[in-house]
Every structure is written in C-alpha cells, then in structure tokens.
C-alpha cells in the first residue's frame, strides 16, 4: 500500500512505549467496534469521519489534546488498514515525524496483552 510507504508504523509494544514517552493514541474505530471489543484506556476517541478537522491545528474545532501532544500521534483502527490511510493524511497536517499508525490495529494491541477495558462511556473524546 502506497500510503504505508511514507509512514513510520508501530507494533503494539512499540506504540505502548511511545505513549509512555508522551505520545497519544487516537482510536478511529466505530462505536459498534468499541462497544463490542472494548477500548484502550488512554486512547482519545475521534471518529474517522471527523478526524481531519479535529486534528487540523488551524481548525476552530481542533482537539486540544492533539495540538498539545509533544510526542507521536498514533492512529489506531480495528485491524491496521484504515489507520494507515488516516495517518498518511495526518502527516500532511502535523508532519511526518509526528504521526504513525498501529500495525494490526486494536486487534493486535489486545492480542499482545496490552491494556484493554470494556467500553462504558466516559473515555477521552467520548460525546
């Protein structure tokens, strides 16, 4: 995939380490996927259909957590495909050195034994 050729992609444990160093995990999965499978406790939920205008530093509707993030912004979808396309778009706004995506998505994160909890509302970015 051409979009991936330009990305620095993160395996689950590498992504977890990047979060510990000031990174931000952005969950773009649907509400149905999050309800069915759970959530990563520290992830910021931004639906895919509003991702660009919530991450654009010049947008009046930008998400302050993205603008204030000093580490990587790591995009996570369900299996690691949609996040590659989204991350490629975000590199144009935020810079290639600030954006990556999670290889294998949420499913790989959970399979790696990293923290997951049931979705109960109230996650960062939840309406």
Question: How would you describe this structure in keywords?
Answer:
127 residues, alpha/beta, five-stranded parallel β-sheet, 39% helix, 13% strand
Annotate the secondary structure layout.
Layout: H1 2-5, E1 8-10, H2 12-20, E2 24-27, H3 31-37, E3 44-45, H4 51-55, H5 64-68, E4 73-76, H6 82-94, E5 99-102, H7 105-111
Parallel strand pairs: 1-5, 2-3, 2-4, 4-5
Oligomeric assembly: single chain
Succession of helices and strands: HEHEHEHHEHEH
Q: Helix coverage percent of residues?
A: 25-40%
Count helical runs.
Answer: 7
Mean pLDDT: 91
What percent strand?
5-15%
Low-confidence stretches: none
Condensed summary:
The protein is an alpha/beta fold.
Architecture overview:
It is a single chain. The chain has 127 residues and is of the alpha/beta class. 39% of the residues lie in helices and 13% in strands. The chain is built from seven helices and five strands, in the order H-E-H-E-H-E-H-H-E-H-E-H. It has helices at residues 2-5, 12-20, 31-37, 51-55, 64-68, 82-94, 105-111; strands at 8-10, 24-27, 44-45, 73-76, 99-102. A five-stranded parallel sheet has the order 1-5-4-2-3. The longest helix has 13 residues, at 82-94. The mean pLDDT is 91.
